[in-house]
Amino acid sequence: MAAINSQVVGWIFGPGTVISYPVVQSADNSYYLHRMFTGEANGSGCIFLDAACAADFSGGHSIIYGHHMKNGTMFASLGEYADQAYYEAHPYFQLATPKGNWRVDIFSAYVADVGQEAWQVEIGDGKYREDWLQKVRSRSAIQTQEAPKEGERILTLSTCSYEFEDARFVVHGVLHPWEE
User: Fold this and answer.
1) What digits encode the pLDDT tens for the residues 77-98?
2) What CA–CA distance (Å, rounded) separates 150 from 36?
3) Which of 24, 38, 47, 177 has the maximum number of C-beta atoms within 10 A of its C-beta?
C-alpha cells in the first residue's frame, strides 16, 4: 500500500464485517473526504486518520473516520454496534500498521452529537482521562466487559448517522498488541 500512497498508515479490518480498508492520513481532515486512498477523486472518499493524531497510533486517542455509504460500504456497518448481539458477534477490530498490529477491543458504541467529546484527540491522563472515559462509556448502547486501563491507547471509529442533524455513530476501542 505504501508503494501506492505514502500516506497509508495502516489497515483496519473487522472480522465478520464488511470493514477491511487501508487507512490514510493527510495534513487536514478534508483531503480524503472525497478521494480514494490512491488520491483520485471519488465521492465515497476513503477511511482516514484524524490529521491531529500520531500517524503511528502512539497517542492516547486516535480517531479514524469513514463515510456511511448507503450501499453498506465504508463505515456504514458501524451503526450495527448499537445492537448488543451484533457487538457480541463482532467484539473487536484488527489494525495493522508498519509499527505493529493491534486488536481493538470495543468498550463503547453510540450515536453522538458532533459537539460531544468523542473526538477530543487529547484526553489527558489521570482524573481528566477517567472523566472522559466515564462520559463515553455512560453513553454506550452496548454493555461490554472491556474497561480501558491507565496508559492504554484508545481508538475511535466515526461515521455519519441520521437520527438528528450532525449525528455521528462512534465506536471506541482499546488498542492491545495483536498476538496470533
Assistant:
1) 999 999 999 999 999 999 999 9
2) 36
3) 24
